[in-house]
Specification:
Layout: E1 6-11, H1 19-32, E2 36-40, H2 44-49, E3 52-55, H3 82-94, E4 99-104, H4 106-117, E5 122-126, H5 142-163, E6 166-171, H6 178-187, E7 191-193, H7 201-213, E8 219-224, H8 230-242, E9 246-250, H9 262-280, E10 286-291, E11 294-299, H10 300-310, H11 316-320, H12 324-350
The protein binds 6-O-phosphono-beta-D-fructofuranose (F6P).
The site of 6-O-phosphono-beta-D-fructofuranose (F6P) has 10 residues, from loops.
């Protein structure tokens, strides 16, 4: 295989704290091997617009602690079409980019596969507060977002306690309930509602009534976004049914900002270094994942299939067409993911009083 002289890096989709730490790690790890790194701005849009710049050691100094992404981010419709992809690839060739590392979520990885399939080696790094890259235990930004939620809700708790109120808090996750469940446990929420598991609203109401009778002064109900105005409507129903004054709080994009936690800086650095190593070993169309204590890599198509199976987006025909061994492996894996979420969900209820 030809020696890599220059690689590109971009951040795409929703930004996540720790993306900068990953960019820094990629630049430093590549330069350490004598490979230059081209920063591509605004995700895939920057590839199409030829908006790129060589990054030096100093360009990435002190960005490890910064939230957002210094490369900026965008969701790029033009890249979905062949013409856009061809423009992007032509610009990479013009800039002598031999391979690319793309940091983002599943949409970002679909783009990575498009590049790989057109001959440009690409490696994905999961960066998303939602933690919804099924193949990886964690994605960059998830830990920081949860910590932000905890800080915000602790503040809400203070005022709830003073006024004997309930706060229904809607947190991000797109359709995934990982932030809601874990942060819900960490703030001592009385109830948690996520899209993956049916919500027993009656049990929640009865519990709030019982807790109030039992002398509890403040209540937090944590709701994952992704179900229309469910959280707002639930707020009204809780107040009407329990008599507890209830407020609604949507934490929204505050969850995407801020300085990354140690956990996210560490994960980003490990994943960034692994991505560089994979590219330089001649690998392509792979996504870096955390599994237990290890940083591993999977074929993007495999990871995307796991993701779609977990999110119940595969049709019966698509499932039947899978190789039986792969199918069994993915089914077991998705079951393990679903079971561990359910275990946390049940634990949240067990300790909420
Ligand atoms: O994927 C990250 C995320 O923040 C989701 O949690 C949320 O649903 C979505 O992005 C919001 O997107 P936008 O920033 O385009 O409003």
């Amino acid at each position: 295989m030809e020696k890599f002289r220059r690689i590109g890096v971009l951040t795409s989709g929703g930004d996540a704290p720790g993306m900068n730490a990953a960019v820094r790690a990629i630049v430093r790890a590549a330069l350490d091997k004598g490979v230059e790194v081209m920063g591509i701005y605004n995700g895939y849009q920057g590839m199409i617009d030829d908006d790129m710049k060589l990054l030096s050691q100093r360009d990435v100094s002190n960005i490890i602690a910064r939230g957002g992404t210094v490369l900026y981010s965008a969701r790029c419709d033009e890249f979905r079409y062949e013409e856009g992809m061809q423009k992007a690839i032509a610009n990479c060739k013009k800039n002598m980019i031999d391979g690319v590392i793309v940091i983002g979520g599943d949409g970002t990885f679909r783009g990575g596969t498009d590049l790989s399939n057109r001959g440009l080696p690409t490696i994905g790094v999961p960066g998303s507060i939602d933690n919804d890259v099924t193949a990886s235990d964690s994605s960059i930004g998830f830990d920081t977002a949860m910590n932000t939620v905890v800080q915000m809700v602790d503040r809400l708790r203070d005022t709830c306690e003073s006024h004997a109120r309930c706060d229904v808090v809607e947190v991000m996750g797109r359709t995934a309930g990982h932030i809601a469940v874990r942060a819900g446990i960490a703030v001592g929420a009385s109830a948690v509602a996520i899209n993956e598991i049916p919500f027993d609203e009656e049990a929640c109401i009865q519990r709030l009534i019982a807790e109030k009778k039992n002398g509890k002064h403040s209540f937090i109900v944590m709701v994952a976004e992704g179900n229309g105005d469910f959280a707002e409507q639930l707020t009204k129903r809780i107040e009407a049914r329990t008599g507890i004054e209830t407020r609604f709080a949507r934490l929204a994009h505050v969850q995407r900002g801020g300085s990354p936690t140690l956990e996210d800086r560490f994960l980003a650095t490990r994943m960034g270094c692994k991505a560089v190593d994979l590219l330089l070993e001649g690998k392509s169309n792979m996504v870096v994942c955390q599994r237990g204590a290890d940083i591993v890599a999977y074929d993007i198509n495999y990871a995307q299939t796991a993701d779609r199976m977990y999110k119940k987006k595969l049709t019966e025909e698509q499932i039947a067409a899978l190789d039986p061994t792969v199918r069994k492996e993915l089914e077991d894996f998705c079951k393990m993911r679903a079971d561990s979420l359910e275990e946390l969900y049940n634990m949240a209820y067990r300790v909420a009083r």
